DNA sequence: AATTTTATGTCAGCCTTGTTGACATATCTC
DNA sequence: GAGATATGTCAACAAGGCTGACATAAAATT
């Protein structure tokens, strides 16, 4: 480990061993509190529809990726198909998501948000965006990019390519 | 795009609709994926002890804030005392946390992590720190500060002072 | 054509972690 | 002494994870 080659890893306290990894309590705890509040916004609205966070996640990714298959969705959410099916069934019954048979592979189900589903997904995304914009508003323009790169780097390296494609891959306009 | 259907949402600059708040999908989704992976590291170890994420949160904040009271812990975690008590009881029984009667107010319970508790808390914090350091390692030194300020600003303004004090306030050694 | 693999659905039951409501106890405050 | 406060506890319930087993249709392989 060529520690000195990476300034960010250099120790501020010369006595402390860098390998002991002084815990980054600040970033750990801020992450917890930020996430806690970040997901609380949608909760209130979801309640009115009889939905929970699990429904939100499914609706969000389906709305953002029309034609998503069950397998791809499972890979994104990292839950079992039984867990997914419970909430997905409700979203389909209440007409927020539509499931069509695959065209090339007819075993697959291609998922689409209905107009009603897209509307709710957008409403929730805007809510969260308002919080994000408020946070970014006081910061330098480069900050957003730094935050974005930080979050991306927190993701398991195995998945980062996949996530990158999902998040940035299909930029319309 | 039926922008003209809702006059109140019409933009001054065609194309850039301020009030429509184009969703920050990138930061929304990256936050989800980053958090998903961030909490997954400790999960594996907690399993070996028969603990879950709820135990982790309690142990973490007690370890970081020796003498924390039940009320303060409830305020941090935002859960009911019944939920807290379930996991706290287990942590006390298994000797990871110790509960002492308050000195000035004997109704209060002051919580302390035992040596075993501190050890586990530290082990988990180091695991998460490793992920954080890996993410920061490729970035400019100012990036950490930007991320920190961003996360802090995501928190409900009502709580940010409290969180700031909790996270940065008591820098011991 | 027969077989195997794959994508999905579904039943049944369990666990963790959140919730509400009611009630008990000790201690502090007025 | 009366009332407020900090905590503990019982019971029941809900959301959203999990495992295991089994079913079906369609694709892929042999």
Layout: helices, strands, pairs:
Two copies of one chain form a homodimer.
Chain A: H1 25-49, H2 53-64, E1 68-69, H3 70-77, H4 81-93, E2 97-101, E3 109-113, H5 115-137, H6 141-154, H7 157-168
Antiparallel strand pairs in A: 1-3, 2-3
Helix pairs in contact in A: 1-5, 2-4, 2-5
The first copy, chain A, binds a DNA duplex (30 and 30 nucleotides) through helix 4.
Give the key terms.
173 residues, globular, three-stranded antiparallel beta sheet, DNA-binding, homodimer, 62% helix, Arc Repressor Mutant, subunit A, mainly alpha, 7 helices
Describe, in plain words, how this protein is organized in 3D.
The structure is a homodimer of 173-residue chains. Chain A has helices spanning 25-49, 53-64, 70-77, 81-93, 115-137, 141-154, 157-168; strands at residues 68-69, 97-101, 109-113. Chain A is mainly alpha-helical and 173 residues long. Chain A has a domain at 38-134: Arc Repressor Mutant, subunit A (Orthogonal Bundle), CATH 1.10.10.10. Chain A is globular, with a radius of gyration of 20 Å. Residues 6-11 of chain A have low confidence and may be disordered. Chains A and B meet through helix 1, helix 2, helix 5, helix 6 and helix 7 of A and helix 1, helix 2, helix 5, helix 6 and helix 7 of B. Chain A binds a DNA duplex (30 and 30 nucleotides) through residues 52-54, 69-71, 79-83, 85-87, 89, 102, 105-109.
CATH first level of the domain at 38-134 in chain A: Mainly Alpha
Tally the helices of chain A: 7
Strand numbers in spatial order across the main sheet of chain A: 1-3-2
* Category by helix and strand content of chain A: mainly alpha
- Greatest chain-chain interface? A-B, 60 and 59 residues
Q: Topology as H/E string of chain A? A: HHEHHEEHHH
Low-confidence region ranges of chain A = 6-11
Supply Rg of chain A: 20 Å
- Report the mean per-residue pLDDT of chain A as an integer: 90
CATH architectural group of the domain at 38-134 in chain A: Orthogonal Bundle
Overall body shape of chain A: globular
| Helix share bin of chain A | 55-70%
Largest sheet data of chain A: 3 strands, antiparallel
Strand content of chain A: 5-15%
Q: What is the fold-level CATH name, i.e. the topology of the domain at 38-134 in chain A?
A: Arc Repressor Mutant, subunit A
- State the CATH superfamily name of the domain at 38-134 in chain A: Winged helix-like DNA-binding domain superfamily/Winged helix DNA-binding domain
Taking the alpha carbons of the first and last residues of chain A, their distance comes to: 44 Å
């Amino acid at each position: 480990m060529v520690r000195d080659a990476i300034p960010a890893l250099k120790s501020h306290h010369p006595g402390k061993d860098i390998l002991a990894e002084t815990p980054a309590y600040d970033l750990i705890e801020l992450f917890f509190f930020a996430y806690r509040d970040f997901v609380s916004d949608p909760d209130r609205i979801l309640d009115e529809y009889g939905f929970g966070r699990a429904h939100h996640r499914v609706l969000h990714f389906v709305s953002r990726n029309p034609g998503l298959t069950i397998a791809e969705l499972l890979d994104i959410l990292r839950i079992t198909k039984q867990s997914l099916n419970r909430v997905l069934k409700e979203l389909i019954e209440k007409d927020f998501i539509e499931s069509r048979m695959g065209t090339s592979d007819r075993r697959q189900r291609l998922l689409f948000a209905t107009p009603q589903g897209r509307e709710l997904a957008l409403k929730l995304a805007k809510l969260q965006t308002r919080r994000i914009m408020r946070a970014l508003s006081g910061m330098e323009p480069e900050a957003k990019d730094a935050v974005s790169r930080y979050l991306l780097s927190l993701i398991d390296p195995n998945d980062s390519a996949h996530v990158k494609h999902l998040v940035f891959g299909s930029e319309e306009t």
